[in-house]
Every structure is written in structure tokens, then in C-alpha cells.
Amino acid sequence: MENQHTPNKCKPHAILIALPLQGHIIPSVQLALTLASKGFSITFINTENIHHQITQSSSPSNVSMGEDADNSIFAHARQSLELDIEYLTVSDGLPIEWDRSLNHDMWVGATMYCFPAHVEMAVAKIVKSRPSVTCLIADCYSPWASKLARKYGLLHVGLWTEAAVVLDVYFHLHLLRENGHLGPGARKDEIDYIPGIKSIKPTDLTSYLQEEDLTTICHQSIFAQIDDAKKADFILSNNIQELEAQPISALQAQIPFYAIGPLFQTGPGFSKGPVATSLWAESSCLDWLDTKPLGSVLYVSFGSYAHIGKEELVAIANGIKLSGVNFLWVIRPDMVSSDEPDPLPVGFRDEVGERGMIVSWTRQTEVLSHRAVGGFLTHCGWNSTLESIHCEVPLLCFPLLTDQFTNRKLIVEDWGVGCNLCDERPVTEKEVSRKVQDLMGGSMGCKLKSKMKQVKEVVDNAMAKGGSSQRNVDTFVDNLKVAWDARLAS
Ligand code: UDP
Question: Where do the domains of the chain lie, and which CATH numbers do they carry?
Fold first, then answer.
């Protein structure tokens, strides 16, 4: 143990390392803001590549940096909100501008084998200069975190940014193995033996657990990450206790687990938060949305990470065109592949005309909270799911990768706030058109909206003063201090 502390009454100091992915940075930043507002000192670490992307995509009009911005994405939060958040960047082992999307497995390898070495150098330096460092907070997808925390005498806090049910499954992988539901020739029947999960179909597991080959670098990485997460002293999660009560209880039986979600920056009306987090430049769509009638626009986005096959994208495009509804569609330049930046059918843009707006990135929370938006065709990313619930926008689900399959089950089957875009793959344009029309103007849309109201209320109550998420943060802070005092005394 290299961190020689003596008991003191200093405020806790957390080193928070964000996983270098858009969907993980957003809740990590919010966690930093939350803990800093509870009196923590925070040192927030981003990769150089992520920092480069955020600053490249930020312009004075869409980033809230302070006037004398010191290259920290937290400059404004530090100055205006007086939050004690230091910021630094480390390499992930790859050149800053290298295309990680096109070379995914190499990037996974770098985050597993190179990134931790750079993180360790940074942690060693911080611990040496700041004896008040208490804990290392790392995304649960960081297989090196517990060893690093132990080496420097820090408490290890995992940050879980997906549904609790996903972590509950990952924590019980041994049961899937023992019961023949994992790997080559896996059983196809329902899984009904995981604590906290009444029943789940194999097709609703994360995509990695549905694959036959479990030896890929992604699998090695995930299995190591989950083994490591189990060793954490605490897990903070972007979940809502009341929405996933049973898997959360099952997790709490194994590890101190605190549901403190939703972790997103919420200003009044979901306005821009104090910290820039977008990896791509945001197009403002408000002027266009302002011209559209109440609830008439379908918002379409498949998130920041997943790719979609060209044929499916074309079927969805033609289906949306056929439906006749207004739509705002985010198509990232690497949506199909970085090699094919404009995958839409030839002539599509002209044919839909004013009815459609297509951008490569936008401020999603601003769009979802606009009065013109009446439905969200989504890949079911966890942040998108929580944001849509917060804005009471019903979902049309088209999961592509990882946890999105499990999230679809929650959205459609458990909470009833969305429906499937198609029942079988490949999706056809006729089915897309029918589902879009039913969501935007049919009885299905009405049904989902009324269910959405109830679920939103549950989330609002959790977020409110005295609500479960607020109480859980406070309990975590108290318990962390107790654990730290006990460690110092030992
Ligand atoms: N997002 C955004 N602008 C866009 C598309 C997405 O700001 O044009 C944000 C969205 O609000 C969400 C995040 O990117 O917070 C995506 O996270 P999610 O978990 O939904 O999906 P992932 O990208 O991790 O697959």
C-alpha cells in the first residue's frame, strides 16, 4: 500500500476515470458534478482522444466553458458553481486522431492493455501530491481498477452506466454456464434461475452473451471487467431503484450497490448543462422543430457507438418515407462505416424535402424535450432510454448491440413505454411504415404515452429531493466516509 494516510477530517477526494465512450462520459461527468456538490474534491480523467473530440466539436455557441477556459471541460462548473473539480487527460495508447470506430478491436485491446498504464502513472502522481485521495472511481468496464486502487491504498468505487438487470446477469455468468445457456450450442429456452430476474429470453441477453464464440477480445475484456467489478468496495449506478427493484436487490445481496440515476445534466427544461460532453459538433434543430406541429416529429437516433447494416438502414429510410411522418434523423458519419459517410438511398433527401431533417449529431436532450417531438426510433441505448422517459417520449425499439437487447425488454415488456420496430429481422420498409404511423398517430402511441406518464413519475420522484436516488447518494457518501475512517484506523 503506497498511500500513507493519517486520519484527518479533510473532504474526500475522488479520482474519477471515465470510460472513453460517449454513453459513459455523460453519466461520469454528471457523477463528478453530483459528488463535488456533496463536498468532494474530484480529479476527473479523460483520454486525450476524448478531450480532443470534445474540444474540436465545441464552439463558443454550444459549449459552456468559462471566459478564461483553461482547457478543462469543467472550467465553467469550477468558476460559476464553485465546484472543486480538477481535470486531466491521459493517452489511451493510440494516436489522438486515429479512427477508433473503424478499428474497434484494436481500440478494445488498447483500453485493456495500454490505457491502464497511463492511468496508473497519473494516479501515482496525484496520490503523491494529494494525501487526501480517498477513492478511485472507475467505470465497471475497467478490468484494472481494483488492482490499481489496492496498490495505492484507495477505496474502489465502480460506476455502472447500464441497466441493473444487465449487471445482475453478468454477476451470475456462472449460472448461465452451468445451465448450458452460454457459448456454442447454448440452450434457447427462457432463463429463470438468475436471482432478481423472473425470466429472460436468451435473445434478450446482451449481444456478447448471445454469441457462440466467447474467445474474442471483447469477450475477454468483458469477463475480466465483470470479475474486477465484483471486487469493488461500492458500486454507484445510473439506475432508478423503483424501476429495477428486483435486480437491484439481487445485486445488493452481493455488493454495496447504490442506484443514483438518472445521471444526466438537467437544467430547467433539460437545458444545456455546465459541462460540454459531445464528441461531435451539435447541429441545432430548434428552428426546424419550431415549424412543426405538436407531437408530429419522429426523432431517430442509433446512438454514438453501434453500427447498422446498409440494407437495414435503407429499409428504415424507405419505411419512414412511406409513413409520411415528419422526422429528425441523426446519422453519424460512421453509422454504417467510416468508409461510407452517406449511406442513405440516392435521392432520399430530395424526396422527403421539408418533412425530414438529417444531421450528423445534435443535442439529443434538447430535441427530446421539444414539444414537436412525439416519438423516438432508438437503438435502446441506456442514456437514450432514460432521457426519453424523462421527456415522456414513447420509444420504437431497434436494438443493435450490447445491452440494447436487454433494454428493449425493459422498455417494451416490463415498463410498456415502447414497442418493437419489427418482430423479426431483417426489418422491412412496410413494417417500419406501419409501426411509425401507429406510434405517431395510432392507438399504440396513445397507449404508450399513458404508460410513459406513470414511469416518468417514478423517475421524477426518485430524482426529487428526498427521493430514492438522492437518499442513495447520501447513504453512499456516509458509508464511504465510514469505510475510509476504518481503513485509516487499521
Ligand atoms: N446523443 C446526443 N446527440 C445525438 C445522439 C446522441 O447528444 O445526436 C447522446 C444521447 O443524449 C445519449 C448519448 O449520446 O446521452 C448516447 O448514449 P446511449 O447510452 O443512448 O447510447 P450509446 O451511444 O452508448 O450506444
Answer: 13-267+462-489 (3.40.50.2000), 282-441 (3.40.50.2000)
Backbone conformation region of residue 369, classed left if phi is above 0, alpha if psi is from -120 to 50, else beta: alpha
Q: Is 320 left (phi over 0), alpha (psi -120 to 50) or beta?
A: alpha
Residue 187: per-residue pLDDT: 97
Q: Is 304 close to ligand 1, i.e. is its CB under 6 Å away?
A: yes
Tell me the three cell numbers of residue 30.
454528471
Using alpha carbons only, what angle is made at residue 33 by residues 30 and 39, rounded to the nearest 5 degrees?
145
Task: Report whether 336 contacts 260 (CB < 8 A).
Answer: no
How close are the terminal C-alpha atoms of the chain, in Å? 12
- C-alpha cell read off for 420: 418493437
Which stretches in the chain have pLDDT values below 50?
Answer: 1-8, 61-69
pLDDT at residue number 2: 46
User: Which protein residue's CA is at the shortest distance from atom 11 of ligand 1?
Assistant: 364
- C-alpha span between 365 and 340 (Å, rounded): 27
pTM: predicted TM-score of the whole model, two decimal places: 0.95
Q: Are 250 and 236 in contact (CB under 8 A)?
A: no
For residue 217, give every residue at least 6 positions away whose Cβ sits within 8 Å of its Cβ, in sequence order, or none.
Answer: 105, 108, 109, 112
The size of the chain, in residues, is 490
Helix/strand/coil for 173: helix
Distance 192 CA to ligand 1 centre (A): 32
Provide the β-strand partners of residue 156: 136
Distances (CA, A) of 326 to 375, 441, 471: 10, 12, 41
Q: Is 375 in the pocket of ligand 1 (CB under 6 A)?
A: no
- Cα–Cα distance, 259 to 244 (Å, whole number): 9
Pick the atom of ligand 1 nearest to 380's CA.
20
Could you read off the pLDDT of 187-245 as tens digits, one per residue? 999 999 999 999 999 999 999 999 999 999 999 999 999 999 999 999 999 999 999 99
* Rounded Cα gap, residues 117 and 456, in angstroms: 42
294 CB-contact burial (10 Å; exposed 0-12 / middle 13-18 / buried 19+): exposed
- Measured distance CA(74)–CA(126) in Å, rounded: 18
